[in-house]
Amino acid sequence: MNIEQHWEQLFGYLPIDGISMQGTWTVYSPGKQVIKSAQGIINLRPNTHNIVINHTNQFPSPDGSKVEK
């Protein structure tokens, strides 16, 4: 299996400019109680050789900015 086939099997088609998806991050206690929940954006971007995916999370702040983690 060559690297392109391996990449395709692992990640499907991931464009060079990446993808972004919105979702809700929820943290639960061991007793399944919600501790905190936040809206966020996950960004996945491959490097130019399709060997590494850079993954960042962004969380909107009340002032309209985004905190990246």
Shape: flat
Fraction in helix: 10-25%
Largest sheet: 4 strands, antiparallel
Radius of gyration: 16 Å
Can you summarize this structure?
The chain has 69 residues and is mainly β.
Structural features:
single chain; 69 residues; mainly beta; four-stranded antiparallel sheet; 1 helix; 13% helix; 49% strand; flat
Task: Note down, in words, how this protein is organized.
This protein is mainly beta and 69 residues long. The protein has one domain. The chain has a four-stranded antiparallel β-sheet with strand order 1-2-3-4, with no helix packed on it. 0% of the residues are buried.
Q: Layout of helices and strands, plus pairs?
A:
Blueprint: H1 3-11, E1 19-28, E2 34-46, E3 53-60, E4 66-68
Antiparallel strand pairs: 1-2, 2-3, 3-4
